Amino acid sequence: GHHVIVRGASKRYGSLEALCGIDLDLAAGSFTVLLGPSGSGKSTLLRSIAGVEKLDGGTIHFGPRTISDRQTHVKPEKRALAMVFQDYALWPHLTVRQNVAYALRRRRLGGQEAGRRVESMLERVGLGAKSGSYPHELSGGQQQRVALARAIVGEPELILFDEPLSNLDADLREHLRLEIATLTRETGATALYITHDQSEAFALADEVAILNAGVIEQRGSAESIFRH
Ligand code: ADP
Ligand code: ADP
């Protein structure tokens, strides 16, 4: 069955309609890319699914639960999801290890078991030697790998990516998108990934949804969307 189901999602900022009745299904374990120009509502939709934004109308179901509707607003930390942002959003005063461990602490996992999971996750993204460093001591690509490790270590059911590669140069973007694809599929998490880069969408997506001015204009498999 479908893992995330969005129906009739609408959101206004004053007189601006950022989302105009969005329907979107994310199949369990699928990788969906939300593609569209700047200002089309991609971040608003993603933040609504994350629960950091409240909808004006419509519903969002997550597995068997209603997480957003007129009466319901499940808090972000209760949604079993993780986010990866364009600006990495690491805690500057925490080491790499502590940044990743933070995701487990929120899930009440501590002690040796947590320590082992953090270290093996950092090895997995090639940063085992950097676990005692601070974010400002790392390159942009390394920081985004820490953010990826932090997102995945807690084994979320859903991972939301908001233009995670936009601040990186072209070579690194290609390299990191492979890592994102591999790691996300290994965890079995459902993924929703925002980009305005068609080649990125083509490389990553099982499913593509094209957003324009708050409306889903086109939707289908990557092959069917990019054949034309
Ligand atoms: P995208 O992610 O596709 O660039 P956004 O979801 O960020 O688009 O924005 C959609 C529209 O809503 C844009 O016109 C943007 O300026 C507006 N918007 C987004 N967030 C806010 C906000 N907090 N207050 C007012 N307008 C906003
Ligand atoms: P993105 O880089 O994903 O397009 P933006 O730069 O559009 O993101 O938005 C960054 C932040 O600013 C978001 O929290 C968004 O809600 C807010 N924002 C975007 N557009 C507006 C706006 N027109 N007025 C107020 N806040 C906005």
UniProtKB/TrEMBL annotation:
<keyword id="KW-0547">Nucleotide-binding</keyword>
<feature type="domain" description="ABC transporter">
    <location>
        <begin position="4"/>
        <end position="228"/>
    </location>
</feature>
<dbReference type="GO" id="GO:0015418">
    <property type="term" value="F:ABC-type quaternary ammonium compound transporting activity"/>
</dbReference>
<dbReference type="GO" id="GO:0043190">
    <property type="term" value="C:ATP-binding cassette (ABC) transporter complex"/>
</dbReference>
<keyword id="KW-0067">ATP-binding</keyword>
<keyword id="KW-0813">Transport</keyword>
<dbReference type="GO" id="GO:0016887">
    <property type="term" value="F:ATP hydrolysis activity"/>
</dbReference>
<protein>
    <recommendedName>
        <fullName>ABC-type quaternary amine transporter</fullName>
        <ecNumber>7.6.2.9</ecNumber>
    </recommendedName>
</protein>
<dbReference type="GO" id="GO:0005524">
    <property type="term" value="F:ATP binding"/>
</dbReference>
